[in-house]
Amino acid sequence: MKIAMITQARTSSTRLPSKVLMHLPYKSNITVLEQDIRRMKESKYLNEIIIATTNKVEDDEIVKIAQKEKVKFFRGSEEDVLSRYYFAAKENLVDVIVRVTSDCPCIDGEIIDLVIGEYLKDESCDYVSTVLERTFPIGLDVEVIKFSALKKTYEEAYKSYQREHVTDYIYENPQIYKLKNVLAATKYRYPRLRVTLDTMDDYMLLCAVYDELYKVNRNFSAEEVIKLLLKKPWLNYINKASVQKKDSYDLNSEIIEGANILKLQGMKRASEILLKQYKGGK
């Protein structure tokens, strides 16, 4: 059985372009993507790591990083990320795909192996992850997908968000796929903490985390990150206004979420007007 980490990476991210090429620690010569890859390598189960990027010239830099870190790469569609995963897995004869995104530079090999281990306990599962019920901090998520399930998803998922976000079709159809969720142990159970990279505020928090921990231990654990954020809770205010982007919304949910974001940014009147106009126009 071949178990491979496939992580998507591109420079044209909408909220924070070229975020995976930003330096961490700040003003170091190490990119976020390199930190991600090095932390993935701590997994005891992974047979290989594949960086799934796009065919765009702008992403040549991502390929160079993959080569520098001595991991494989695959180039495919920019928008159809599902097809990128499927063909990367197919080309490399992967039986079990592990998915961690390239904007999570606090990912922990122990958590990766925890989720893979849960899959290996019951290989009849199609999908095992930490995201069906979120109990880990944002940025420590891991998904494990059986190749046959990924193939079926590639063939059947047709909505644009299902092609962009890879696994949505799987957990939207529990009647088709056998799903399993992994709950966080007490030491990890802080789902409101956020250590991912979507905004500049997120980057500032991650710089603070790396400033504190990286110089002591270059492979600091997720548990150490959590302890730091609990010991110095004011750090969490740095990215408090960062909102986790959902994979998909129906119109009603999108408008309500938009109103909540406006309110969070201090634009209470605009939030109230948006909700009022929406309710009046229904």
From TrEMBL:
GO cellular component: cytosol
Transmembrane stretches, start-end: none
InterPro entries: Cytidylyl_trans, Nucleotide-diphossugar_trans
Superkingdom: Bacteria
Annotated PANTHER family: 3-DEOXY-MANNO-OCTULOSONATE CYTIDYLYLTRANSFERASE, SPORE COAT POLYSACCHARIDE BIOSYNTHESIS PROTEIN SPSF
Protein name (database record): Glycosyltransferase family protein
Lineage: Bacteria, Bacillati, Bacillota, Clostridia, Eubacteriales
